[in-house]
Amino acid sequence: DDPVVDPTQVITLRTSGGQTRYIPATAPMTLAELKGLSGLIFGAVTFYYNAAVIEDATVLPVGSVISAIGNVKGGN
Fold it and tell me: Which of 2, 20, 5 is nearest to 62 (CA)?
């Protein structure tokens, strides 16, 4: 079971490999910051937010859900 997560305090990162990371966030952050905090290693990956492709400089609001489709290597 997933832990109970308050969606108003995280940015959710889901990968095509089935992993989900809840990144604590009290303010918007860029995709680059989110990737750095995720503990994951990204190869050839396309990131999506609201069905649109996003770049490292895209600012993500708290509560958003990001999809990473492609080659993602997990940490813990």
Answer: 5
